[in-house]
Design a protein that fits this description.
Layout lengths: L2 E5 L3 H13 L3 E5 L2 H11 L3 E4 L8 H10 L8 E5 L4 H10 L3 E4 L4 H15 L7 E4 L2 E4 L4 E4 L2 E3 L3 H12 L5 E2 H9 L7 H14 L7 E4 L3 E4 L5
Parallel strand pairs: 1-2, 1-3, 3-4, 4-5
Antiparallel strand pairs: 6-7, 7-8, 8-9, 10-12, 11-12
Length: about 230
């Protein structure tokens, strides 16, 4: 189920959109001003943002610019939904890089079609099904792992963790990001799950355990093999 964040200060309109999103099989989240919208976008990392323009505090254009400045949210497609129907406003929204622009009043059915089309266009290309990095070879189809050509028996969680780190080799991954992407949550109370998996993973990939480095106070880093 894809997550859609609705940033709209009119609670009735926000509720109407959210209900339609849910009926069409999406997860809907709501924010009622620009500041809350930016905060929730960073927390939830939704698949799409429906963004009003005329809001108190920070208008939609300002919110859009802030989203695109942040590397965590810059990739999220944005659909403007606004009562500002002048051609100049539409051109401004689209020229900023918005994926679509719909004016109020709107048809919920048309909005859902636009949402579906935007999500399809922005869907990520399938990732490589085979990962190879130094002594590691991972097959995402079968969840099989080989180290130095020898099979290593990993649980599904250990495989996902190793694949996540290898795909981002050379860059530090925060504990929160790892928890979110591998297990779907970032609750600090559950962080022992990560520590346990890291410990078991290191035991299984010895003598290359040192390639999974602890970055104190931040998270973990998969060290690229030396050439």
């Amino acid at each position: 189920m894809q997550k859609v964040l609705v940033i709209e200060d009119d609670e009735d309109i926000s509720e109407l959109i959210s209900n339609n999103l849910k009926r069409n099989g999406h997860i809907a989240a709501q924010a009622f001003d620009g500041f809350e919208g930016l905060e929730k976008a960073g927390e939830l990392l939704p698949d799409l943002i429906i963004l009003d323009i005329m809001m108190p505090g920070k208008d939609g254009f300002e919110v859009f610019r802030e989203l695109k400045k942040n590397e965590r949210t810059e990739h999220i497609p944005v659909l403007f939904l606004s009562a500002r129907a002048q051609l100049e406003d539409r051109l401004t929204g689209l020229s900023l890089g918005a994926d679509d622009y719909i004016t109020k009043p709107f048809s919920p059915k048309e909005l859902m079609l636009r949402v579906q089309n935007t999500l399809k266009r922005s869907a990520p290309k399938p990732a490589r099904l085979e990962l190879e990095c130094g002594p590691f070879l991972l097959d995402k189809n079968t969840l099989k792992c080989r180290v130095d050509g020898e099979p290593v028996d990993l649980t599904a969680g250990e495989f996902k963790l190793l694949a996540y780190l290898i795909e981002r080799a050379g860059t530090v991954q925060t504990r929160g990001d790892i928890m979110r992407h591998v297990w779907g949550y970032s609750d600090d109370a559950q962080s022992r799950t990560l520590d346990t998996h890291i410990k078991r993973l290191r035991q299984k990939i010895a003598p290359h355990a040192g390639m999974v480095e602890t970055v104190r106070g931040t998270g973990y880093l998969f060290r690229l093999p030396e050439e």
